[in-house]
Every structure is written in C-alpha cells, then in structure tokens.
Specification:
The structure is a homodimer. Chain A is of the alpha/beta class. Helix content of chain A is 35%, strand content 24%. Chain A is globular. The two termini of chain A are 29 Å apart. Chain A binds chain B through residues 13, 81, 112-114, 116-119, 147, 162-166, 168-169, 172-173, 176-179, 202-207, 209-211, 213-215, 217-219, 234, 237-238, 240-242, and chain B through 81, 112-114, 116-119, 147, 162-166, 168-169, 172-173, 176-179, 202-207, 209-211, 213-215, 217-219, 234, 237-238, 240-242.
Chain lengths: 303, 303
C-alpha cells in the first residue's frame, strides 16, 4: 500500500517536470528537456512515459495531472482558457488522449483576460497552490520567469493579471545582442543601480541599454556589474509598469532562486511588504488541488 | 585618364560596401558580407582585395578611405575615438597596415562621449557627408538602424549624441522571441498605433510586448498589424526617450528605406520638421570629405 497513486506534471515550452506521489508524499521526481516546443501532438505520451513508465503500478489506472503549455493549441490536448475574474482553478480538467491503459491524463486550463489581452498557462496552478496553503489571502502574486506574471487576487479569485517579457528580453540581450560582449557574472551592486535607474526613468530603458556597451568600451565597466545592471534595468522597468499592481499591496513572489530574491529585494527598496515562495512547491500544491477536481472514479484512458 | 583614383569603403560589423571613384564620380560599386564580425585582423586586406583587386590601376598607389567598425579595437587598425564636442570628421586618419603596394589604407576615427557614455563608428562619416552637402546646418540628425543614433549638431560640431538599441531589439523580438509566432509582414496602421502607444506610455513597453502575442491568441490579431505595431512600440519608446533631442528642433533622418520613412512618419505626427536622406549617399559624401584630409602625397603602403 506504499505505492504511487498519482502523477503530477509541470509541462512548459522548454521543460517537463514530473513527480510520482502517494497522496501528498513525493515518491519520485525527475525532469527532462522534452518541452512542448519540441514535441508534436503524438510525442507527448512517449515523452511522459520515458520518465514515468517504471513508476506505474500494473493492473490499475494512474491519474496524471498536468499544468502548463501541454494544454495549449499546439500541446497534447487544448485546454481552453477560463476568463478572469475567476478562481485560479476549476473543473472540469481536460482529458488528453493516450494509448497506455495505465494512464488517465488530465490538463489544467489556463486563464485569459480580455482587456488588456493576456493569457496564463501554468502560473494559475502556482497561484492555486499558494492559495491552498494560504486560505483567505488577498494581495498580489508576482511570478518572475521567462514571462513574468503579476496576478491580483481577491476573495479567492484572480481579478486581473499582466505578463511582462522581462526574462526573455534579458536572455536575448545578454546572450545574443551586442551587449553579450560586455556582460558576464553577477555583482549585486550593479543590480541595485539598475533597478533604481529603471524605476526612476523607465522611458529611458532603450537608451540605457547601449550605455552598458559604451561604458565597457570607454570606462572598463566590469562585466559582472554590467550583467547585473542589465537585469536591474529590465526589472526596474517592469516594476515601474507594474506599479498599479504592487502599490499599496502585499506581494508574494513565487519563483526560483536567485531570481525570486532579486525581485523581492527590488520590491523591498519600494517598501512593499513581500514574501518569497519556491515555485515547484506551489506548482505541486496546485496540482494536488486540481486532483481533487477529478470525478471520484477516474475514467479510464481515451483510446 | 578615366581611371579610378580612390576607393571608399563602409565597413560595418556585418557588411562591407565599397565604391571605386574618380573624384566624385562612382565608377564601380559592390558589397560583401565580410563584416568586421567575422574577420581576424589579417583578414581585412584579403576581404577588401577580393572586391577591388580588378579595379586597381597598376604602377600607382590608390588611397582607400574606410569608415565604420574596421577602425575598432577588433578591426583592421584601431582608430581611437575623438571626444565630442568636435567636428564629425578631422585628421589625421589612421593608416592601416597592408601588404599590397597598390593600396594605401586610411580609417576614419569614431566619436566618443563621456557622459552619458556613448560611442559612434561610421555614423560620424554620414553626419560629415550631410554637413558637407548642407553647410551651416544646425539641428538634430537621426540615423536609424541596428543601433539608432541621435546626433545634435551646432556650428559644424557634434555637440552630443545618444545610441538606442531599437533595431537590434526589433530583430531579436520579431525573429527569436515568443512573438515570432505572431508577427509577419507589415501594415502601416499597426505602426501608427504602436508609435502612439509607445510615445504615450513608454514605461509600459515591457507590458505591451506580450500583449501582441496574447491578442494574436485571443483576438486573432493579424500578423502584419502585429509586426508593424511591434516596430511602432519600440520606435515610439525611442522617440519618447529621445525627446530632449528632437523637441523644438528640425531633424534630418539619414537611413535606408523603408526604415527612414517610418521614423520620418513618426516624427511627423509630433509636428517635428523632418527631411530624409539616403545613407549610402551621405556615407560616400563623408568619405569624400575625409579624403581631403589626406596629405597631398599619400604615403605608400606600410609593410
């Protein structure tokens, strides 16, 4: 009776993370780079089985709960967006077709907002996990990453949200632009400077970026200062644009270290009350909450 | 006596353009993709000869005047920056080592600004060419491109300048970010919208970018509108940051079509008096002005 009774999966564009659980206890966890971005529709089941086949008890159907891009139109099965304002999580989950009779696969829907147009896939599950652990919490949740999300939560519902391209922009600029010659490593002082500059005059972002290159050429600006300042400039500009979200609110930052700490530090300089939370734990808590939405008898595999 | 008497070259990071001239008359022109970015120091002379060897009169030394990244530290020979305020062009040019006795190669120095730190290599020659054709002109010169430059000119001198990463950012976002799925083609209406949004609330740039993706997913935003709006958002944000440059000034835009027209159109909506000028013509006029700085007897090749 110590066997696994469900599988949780966080399936993004560039990654797949899975956990094998019995109730709330994690028995196994692993990951691969088989993100949605490199899979065709019939590639999802094999990619999942490659990680979990050895965990599966024979002679029974194991439910798999998935959040993230696996539910997009190019994913395993499209899980249509739910429109805000709404709870971050609600049934029915969308069942994905599979051939292996040991699996019953269910995907959590993302959220959409009409104006300004915006979408979320995956972070809604982290929000649900956070709220499951903090019942009755009202405030703003910030989820930094490739596409960082700011989510306003009130009375258990997502009221509105806003996506920023900050992380992707940092990757492109630091690895592929002319700035790549001038940035490497990390120095906290550069980050603080960048946040202050980015917040104070966000409209000058486009001008300040090339300044990093010019300062390296003319003044020998250190590469670790330059890289941290680049991150600070972008995050500072994001914070300036997200001011309607954090102003006068408490903020929970859900993310991976050190990025979540960087956001918390930047918010701290604005006197915003802030807590930080590890994203895998919130994802797992959210997927556990999603599992309670399954019908008591999980239907068997769709063939 | 109808033979070529000098060669002009615009040698950037990713391109090499050369002209064979007699006085102001272009006898030959050609180009290659042998930019500085892919050449080691001893690769410059062969790359140049590959284009011009057939043009060279035997038994005499032909001067070659080069502007651009060939004068950078990683270039053919470093031509140290001159500090603004100063004329866009002044001697001595920097002589580059070469083995072919038919060539005498001279590189135009770039410009540097201490605060805010900034550098120019190549555009100073276009500015010089423009001023050679418009003596006594005062105002602001805008040179859009991978790295767009705004240059304040007064009494024949470059007073100050500012570089924006706009073009490079557009390339990265439209070709390599998540937005690449949603942008293709061009629709003028999208550009005008983007400029207006980018100018009005430049601090929201980072938020509006993902909106293009979300609008494509939710509202079927057309890819040609989206791509033009992306360009407009970035150029609008640049114009907002460059306001101290263009406000109350006349602006000469030097660039290639259609980008120069897009900038002129955007500046026109701000009631800025604007003219546009083709960049190759300005480069050539600037290199011709640089040629007059050579000593009467061009020294022979440095071996």
């Amino acid at each position: 009776m110590s066997g696994l009774d469900w599988i949780a999966a966080d399936w993004g564009t560039s990654h797949l993370r899975v956990w094998g659980l019995r109730g709330d206890t994690v028995l196994h966890q692993t990951a691969s780079d088989q993100g949605m971005g490199q899979l065709s529709r019939d590639g999802f089941e094999p990619a999942l089985l490659a990680l979990v086949a050895d965990w599966l008890p024979e002679g029974q159907v194991t439910p798999v709960i998935i959040c993230g891009m696996a539910g997009s139109r190019q994913g395993w099965a499209e899980a249509p967006y739910r429109a805000v304002p709404c709870t971050p999580l609600d049934g029915p989950l969308v069942q994905a077709p599979c051939r292996d009779l040991r699996l019953s696969v269910h995907i959590v829907p993302g959220l959409q907002q009409a104006k300004p147009a915006d979408v979320i896939r995956g972070e809604e599950t982290q929000v649900a996990g956070f709220l499951a652990q903090h019942p009755g919490w009202d405030g703003v949740i910030c989820l930094p990453g490739t596409h960082s999300k700011w989510v306003r939560v009130s009375a258990g519902e997502v009221v509105s949200f806003q996506t920023f391209l900050t992380g992707e922009m940092f990757g492109l600029l630091s690895e592929q632009s002319v700035l790549r010659h001038s940035v490497a490593g990390w120095a906290d002082a550069g980050f603080a400077e960048g946040v202050a500059q980015g917040m104070e005059r966000p409209e000058r972002l486009m001008a300040r970026l090339f300044g990093l290159r010019a300062e390296a050429l003319l003044n020998g600006l250190a590469a670790d200062i330059a890289r941290a300042r680049l991150s600070g400039l972008l995050i500072g500009a994001e914070l300036a644009a997200a001011k309607p979200y954090w102003l006068g609110q408490r903020v929970a930052v859900i993310g991976a270290a050190p990025l979540a700490q960087h956001y918390a530090q930047a918010l701290g300089t604005l006197s915003v009350p802030v807590t930080t939370h590890e994203s895998p734990a919130m994802t797992l808590a959210g997927l556990a909450a999603a599992r309670t939405l399954l019908p008591p008898e999980a239907p068997s595999c769709v063939n």
